[in-house]
Amino acid sequence: RNKNGRVAVLGLNNETDTANEVIKGLPENSVINLVGKTTLSELMYVLKNVLLCLCNDSGTMHLASALNINGIAIFGSTDPYSTGPFAEKWVVMLKKQACSPCFSRECKNSIRDYKCLKSVTAEDVCKTIDILLKKSSS
Fold this sequence. Notes:
about 140 residues, alpha/beta, 3-stranded parallel sheet, 5 strands, about 35% helix, about 15% strand
């Protein structure tokens, strides 16, 4: 959505291809691609200066939660009750499937093919972002 904001994309070196897929089609001047380019202290600095963090169940999620940043965590194969962010400024997005939580990094169910993650749609995420940003600005 065109909100005249900027997006910082963060991740590890081995996530470069995924990051490039995520940012494909976004206006070049609206994206800061920092994948594989930050130290832990630089990551913390970036996180302290964002309006919202959107991530999966990861170390970045826990760090952002500890820094008391607004956030959205998308869960699929893991269990937010066990490993979720424990901060009130966070929303967990999960569309529970019969096979989840399986805690696998790779989907072992070829019929479902990551349905746990793919069922959380971009539209769902955008609506949640709008809600969180409205809450934080009031």
